[in-house]
Design brief:
Length: 118
């Protein structure tokens, strides 16, 4: 029994030392071109939605003010006072709360956050 424990310990020590001498294996992964693992296989990203995402990143929205604790919450975006249902630059205001303004542009939803909140 003692001998088998000693052999096992020697084997474990030898394999641990042998692994330490090798350079660490670097693995590089790129998910480009792969499907989104959080999207249902039944859903497929439409080219229109991909175009809308790109267009959203090219639009400029300046969230200048929020009033959310009222019967008619409002936001000031690009100098324009908006309520839920209003719009600016083709984007519709869906919701206004203390976290920001939820908007939709060509079927893509996004949130404008006030400065200092993300």
């Amino acid at each position: 029994m003692k001998r088998s424990c000693a052999v096992l310990a020697a084997f474990l020590l030898a394999t641990a030392c042998a692994g330490a001498a090798e350079a660490p294996l670097e693995v590089h992964y790129s998910g480009a071109g792969q499907r989104d693992p959080f999207m249902s296989p039944a859903q497929k990203a439409s080219p229109e939605k991909e175009d809308a995402k790109e267009e959203i990143s090219n639009l400029t929205f300046a969230l200048e003010g929020l009033i959310w604790e009222s019967d008619h919450p409002q936001a000031i975006i690009n100098g324009k006072i908006l309520e839920v249902g209003g719009g600016v630059q083709g984007a519709e205001v869906l919701d206004i709360d203390e976290n920001g303004v939820k908007m939709r542009y060509k079927g893509q939803e996004f949130i404008l956050h006030p400065k200092g909140k993300t």
